[in-house]
Amino acid sequence: MITIIAAIAKNNALGKDNDLIWHLPADLKRFKKVTSGHHILMGRNTFESIGKPLPNRTTIIITRNKEYFKDGCLIANSIEEAIEMVENKDEIFIIGGAQIYKETIEKNLADRLDITLVHHEFEADVFFPEIDLTIWEEASIENFIADEKNKFDFSFVSYTKKTI
């Protein structure tokens, strides 16, 4: 199972200046719970913005730079190579960035989308690809209203591929 996991705004904004635009502790807590114990695949820029391997996860960094190395991480030169590195058919989470999301969707590699939808529009320089509802169907949704810790209304939305 390959899952794309992302937090996106109403206008599909992902980030700006290689950083997150908003801070939603509920989303971060859920991300940790869902991805812990699994493989996470990400582009080099996403890894650099995080700065270190995340605990209790196997980190695979995708980069075209054949000399790239980071302690505690596996390095792949393509999404396909990264997927091949995953042992025991573990669940794989694609965690970014925009180019990795786009390529994974275009190559039809993902089985599921796990989206935190932030009900606000933001200025951004990177965006999530448009979710094609002829391919994906909403499997579940949980809605939350803003509170003292989470400054924006948001929803956890899961999509699965439509069966033809």
Q: TL;DR?
A:
The chain is of the alpha/beta class. Helices cover about 20% and strands about 35% of the residues.
Classified in CATH, the superfamily is Dihydrofolate Reductase, subunit A
Number of domains: 1
Q: What is the 3D shape?
A: globular
CATH class: Alpha Beta
CATH-derived topology: Dihydrofolate Reductase, subunit A
Q: H/E element string?
A: EEHEHEEHEHEEEE
Q: Describe it for me?
A:
The chain is α/β, with parallel strands linked by helices. The protein has a single domain, classed as Dihydrofolate Reductase, subunit A (3-Layer(aba) Sandwich), CATH 3.40.430.10. 21% of the residues lie in helices and 33% in strands. The protein has 4 helices and 10 strands, in the order ββαβαββαβαββββ. The strands form 2 sheets. The protein has an 8-stranded mixed β-sheet, sandwiched between helices. α2 (44-50) links the parallel β3 (39-43) and β4. It starts with a strand and ends with a strand. The mean pLDDT is 95.
Question: Can you lay out the helices and strands and say which pair or pack?
Answer:
Elements: E1 2-9, E2 13-15, H1 25-35, E3 39-43, H2 44-50, E4 58-62, E5 73-76, H3 79-85, E6 92-94, H4 98-106, E7 112-118, E8 126-127, E9 136-144, E10 154-161
Parallel strand pairs: 1-6, 1-7, 3-4, 3-6, 4-5
Antiparallel strand pairs: 2-8, 7-10, 9-10
